[in-house]
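Closing statement on the zinc ion sub-project.
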Amino acid sequence: MTTPETILSELIRCKTVFCEQGKPFPKDEFTKLHEVIAQRFPLVHSVLEREVTDGFTLIYRWKGGEGKPVLFMAHQDVVPASESGWKYPPFSGKIADGFVWGRGAFDMKCQLVAILQAAEVLIAQGFTPNRDVYLCFTHNEEAPDETGAKAAAKLLEEKGIRFAFAIDEGGYAFYGREFGMKKDGIFISLCEKGYADIEIEALDAGGHASTPNKDTALVRVCRAIAAIERNPPKPYKNPATTQLLSATKRSIPRCKGCGLVRRMSSNPATDALIRSTIAPTMIIASNAPNVLPSEVKANLNVRLLPGQTPEAVLAYCERTAKRTGVNMRLVKANNATKISRTSGYDYEKIKRALESALPNHLPVPGIMTGATDSRYFSGICDDIYRISPFACAKEVRDAMHGVNERISIKSLYEGISFFKTLIESF
Ligand SMILES: [Zn+2]
């Protein structure tokens, strides 16, 4: 029997792996995935208009009434998976223990299935939405250059379409205890943090390691990194964090101030929601064990809260590591995305649909610490919300790009219910 979980299992067996170094783009696997979708969602494929852009990115239009169009997004591609360490092979799509297992099960073929299944069921019931519903399934979100999302956004813009809102992956369910809340929560992420890479450089005469001088280039770069690590940027007040904190505080009994910021600082996942983060990620020094490096370079990867610019964080790093005598410069930078609204008709509908699909979870405005394809659509969407409507995220999220990626079958149905309720409620 065909069920959403067997369809998801089939999609996982399509090895739509992008960015596997040195390997050609697996065209046949994407074609296979398109065929499975067409076969398993026949009503969607007879009622919706379908268009392909950039080779493999799919755009569907479900023609509805006069209301402002909406956009639901997912990506078809997945990151590579090593064969070892998995309970079941990563591309087996094994259904066992109440879960569908495999690469892409959570990130994010589950959402692709949830969106399509919701549409399929509604069409079968004779339902027509009261506004156009667009679906966009990109094919290289995990790659360094997201050409699919860029092409789709351009195409929709050229057609003159403007969306009331878009929903893409990203706001995850979380344990309430992380915030001291009695109830578990799920984020509706209102924005994505900005991104910057700062290069640290120190020069030196180099020489033989048997007669080392003091303060070599490598020592100075390490001191700079240590100084920045000891003095992370302070929590930064911005509208997105403020909304997150106030929604969270309201749900903590008798909370006045309540050390919430301190509590959040103690966990990397929540700490990243209240401050811009700086992570040292690369260092290049001498290439021989007995040679002092004449040039050392390191990289700091920065994720910026809305309102904090890359230049401001660079200046902060320079000040903090001033005494070490290193040079710093920005090599890549973009600001956080616009903060979407938490008021109005559509936000209320989204919140209600979440409450109905995940009744034990409080929807909380959040901040996406990573990036999604939806950022390329900010020019044609009034608001963008990042939501992964699956309660099992609390336990399985860490497996997302790692081993044993999976989604519970129960959560897959929560996702379907969310999109179905939302489309019906417009
Ligand atoms: Zn993803």
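Residues 75, 107-108, 141, 169 surround zinc ion (CB under 6 Å). With this model delivered, the sub-project is considered complete and its resources will be redirected to Aim 3.
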